[in-house]
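Appendix B, record 7
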Amino acid sequence: MRPILAPALHPAQIHPALRSFADECSGVLARLIAYMGALALIAIIGVSLWDELPKGMGDPAAKSAWSVAARSYPAFAVSQFDSLGKTETYEILRHPDGGRKDVFRWAAQGEKPVAELEIYRPGGELSQSGPPIAEIAGRMDPDAMRELQAAGLIDSKFGAVTLLVLTDPGGGARPCLGFLKRVDEPNLRISGWSCQGDTLPARRAAIGCILDRLILLAAGNDPKLAELFAHAELKRGSCAPASAAPVTSADWVTGAQNPRLRGIL
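Structure tokens (predicted):
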């Protein structure tokens, strides 16, 4: 029996509907491939732009936050500080943009601190921070919105240091004194406050002792910081206890009594 062979179809004999359907499928597939390629290109460009953003730009909270650097080594110390039974704590804070704060606090067990010293070496975050005077006021009295006003100057091994006092302490409480010293080379800011001493001369003397007893343990890769403290040690004077504050001084600016200055900083 002879096999029955199906006749070969010539392209011209294909039904027009089938040919139209095949052309439509080819067009849809081509458009789908082009669409997927465009999406992939957009994704690649987006990832590239994200990688070029500064670190932390996508997270404002992380960019502005200071965190405790538990593994960092202490860079400073306060030698022979007359803490009057107070415990010293040392905390190191770091900022994602490179800033570092070394913070000393002195307080009795379970009590509020009576003195604080902060050595701030700023990084790129300095332009985002507020005025240092307002920052010191917040550290001195976090629960009240009060301003600081000038309270004269004291001399230290780092040079003249500006003293500050909170306006309207209220309640007859003895006013604590804040202090601020800026250094241009290296870029450094020494600030803090102290409530030690029963009189203003005694509190001024207590701040002078804190600054004169501040020493450098490690400069890291900052030779200007080492040079600053080396020159400061040559100017280090005798530090009398807070109870033995001098009665007289060389001039009215750095005298034991606060000069009568007007105005709020």
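Remarks on this record: The helical segments are 16-52, 60-64, 132-140, 200-212, 223-234. Confidence is low (pLDDT under 50) at residues 55-63, 242-254, 256-265.
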